[in-house]
Write a structure and sequence with these properties.
heterodimer, A: mainly alpha, 79% helix, B: mainly alpha, 77% helix
């Protein structure tokens, strides 16, 4: 197949998967409502906790930004990484595998569709959080904030693509692993507090630096709440770009390896594991 | 139904629940799994508290202990809600066995109680591990004084609080079971809604006095508030807490919750049978 045709075919596959994701993600209004309200409930508890200890109001802003970004992490985890597990359970995975397209095209479609859906929810969480808790924002460089945001999303989805290879093979382990990557990642990445605080032990800070979300959250908070600029957050920008550039090729390799392993062990179409 | 049949149903359901929950991993991986999530949850609120306190200039160990006990024991709410909601979905749509359980001589309600008790058992394991690790990390690692006399726990009060609390959470779980059997695709969000609201208004990690007045009224109507007050009293013996009144309020709210739970479940099962929902297929 000519390279141009190949690219077009994969783009069409990505678009098809994107369409299904957007349509499927928004056809249940109760999901849309739940995915907006549930994070606000949790965020409210953490904001009240900060209020109880009389922390400055910008800490409430940290919580709201963390909760907003957590929507994207949940999307990466459940609607991208774990998606191959669901597809296997419903019998779609073999259809993807026999189609003359790259697995990365399928994942790209999922990522873009998931990004659109999650952005709708994240914006709602952000606005509601801002309105309810009157958090002071100080954005002097919106383009820098957007740059960090998109770099964070790129790195997270690249990480999600890499995890997807694992979920292709496993059964209930995949479900439990996705569960396991929620609170521990929230803790390590400092979703609701700055990991640079003196209270956070060095080992935790070291571990947190292995997660792209940590750099994204830190950068966005600095620009959106503390009013800093690109000269203060350039290390975050470099780190996020490096994460994306390293994780994407790794994801491609991992998918190929796991697919071959799955074929050898006959686990790609195994249900009810 | 004969007591023997009920006990056998509950025992078999617990055993089944244990197998479903654990046989995907070897015991060590399973233990780590059951440890990591609650401990990470505790670390999140612990660090929010610490970082906020250090910034504001005072670390109140009494408030930390309040949070530590509340967050640790809240695992029962999360686990029972999640177990009771997911089991209807899994047994009906995923494994397609709900119709067989419904047809068996044992009652479906007692089967659900057995599965919920397995959730309680798992929650107890998580609780013990997270209490131990929490003390190790916060008291010995980060130097926060947790003023609990571990040899002076009032086991009688703690046992009563746990007993009524667990019955209450099962009552709530029956409401969720009823809703799940009548609907589809809400099994993931429903327990999160309920446990999220209880977490926010139940005085779990912050004092309900911080809430606006309408929020305090909600807090006063929730059994989880009294459950956690009683549990905290059994550890801390606060002189300013009327434990008898809290116990009485817990019992009253438990009775109301259980009656509502059983009524909702009964109506839901009646309608589910009439509308052919007991073996409803979903995405699997």
């Amino acid at each position: 197949m000519m390279m141009r045709e190949n690219v077009l075919l994969n783009m069409r596959a990505a678009y098809a998967r994107l369409w299904v994701r957007i349509k499927g993600g928004n056809r249940e209004p109760q999901w849309l409502i739940a995915e907006t309200i549930i994070p606000i409930i949790t965020l409210s508890a953490y904001i009240f906790l900060y209020k109880m200890v009389k922390a400055p109001p910008e800490y409430s802003g940290f919580v709201i930004i963390g909760g907003t970004m957590m929507a994207f992490w949940s999307n990466v985890l459940w609607n991208m990484s774990a998606q191959f597990y669901w597809e296997k359970e419903v019998g779609n995975l073999e259809v993807y595998l026999v189609a003359p397209i790259s697995r990365m095209a399928i994942l790209l479609g999922m990522a873009l569709g998931g990004f659109v859906n999650t952005t709708l929810r994240a914006v709602a969480v952000f606005i509601a959080g801002m309105y309810i808790f009157q958090v002071p924002f100080a954005i002097y460089e919106p383009l820098t904030a957007l740059l960090i945001f998109f770099l964070t999303i790129g790195a997270l989805y690249a990480l999600g693509m890499m995890f997807a290879s694992l979920f292709m093979l496993y059964g209930r382990e995949a479900w439990h692993t996705a569960n396991l990557l929620q609170e521990p990642i929230q803790f390590l990445s400092g979703t609701y507090y700055p990991t640079t605080s003196q209270v956070v032990p060095f080992m935790v800070q070291l571990l947190s630096s292995l997660i792209p979300l940590t750099f994204g959250l830190d950068g966005i908070r600095k620009v959106a709440i503390l009013g800093l600029g690109i000269s203060d957050v350039w290390p975050n920008i470099v780190a996020l770009a490096v994460f994306t550039l390293v994780l994407l090729p790794l994801a491609r390799q991992a998918l190929r390896f796991m697919e071959n392993l799955g074929k050898k062990e006959g686990r790609l179409t195994l249900r009810w594991q | 139904m004969a007591v023997g049949t009920i006990l056998r149903t509950v025992k078999q359901a617990m055993w089944l629940g244990w197998k479903v929950e654990t046989n995907w991993a070897d015991p060590l991986v399973f233990a780590i799994y059951y440890l990591i999530r609650p401990v990470a949850g505790l670390l999140i609120v612990g660090f929010i508290f610490l970082i906020g306190s250090v910034v504001s200039g005072t670390v109140d160990s009494g408030l930390f202990t309040y949070l530590f006990i509340g967050n640790s024991f809240f695992i029962y709410v999360v686990q029972v809600m999640m177990t009771m909601t997911m089991l209807i979905h899994e047994d009906r749509a995923h494994y397609e066995v709900l119709k067989h359980i419904y047809l068996a001589p044992g009652s479906l309600s007692w089967y659900i109680v057995g599965r919920a008790l397995n959730g309680v058992m798992n929650a107890s394991v998580s609780l013990l591990l997270s209490l131990g690790l929490g003390v190790a990390i916060f008291q010995y690692g980060l130097g926060i004084n947790i003023p609990i006399n571990w040899l002076g726990i009032d086991w009688g009060i703690l046992g009563l609080g746990l007993l009524f609390g667990i019955i209450c959470f099962m009552g709530m779980g029956f409401i969720l079971c009823g809703i799940t059997i009548m609907t589809s695709k809400v099994q993931f969000t429903l327990p999160e809604y309920v446990s999220g609201i209880l977490y926010l208004f139940g005085g779990v990690v912050f004092l309900p006095e911080i809430l606006p007045s309408w929020g305090q009224h909600i807090s006063n109507a929730l059994p989880v508030t009294y459950f956690l007050n009683i549990v905290r009293f059994s550890f801390l013996h606060q002189a300013n807490l009327d434990v008898q009144m809290n116990l009485l309020l817990l019992i009253v709210t438990v009775i109301a919750t259980v009656l509502i739970g059983l009524a909702v479940f009964k109506v839901a099962m009646f309608r589910a049978r009439r509308n052919g929902l007991i073996d409803k297929k979903e995405e699997y």
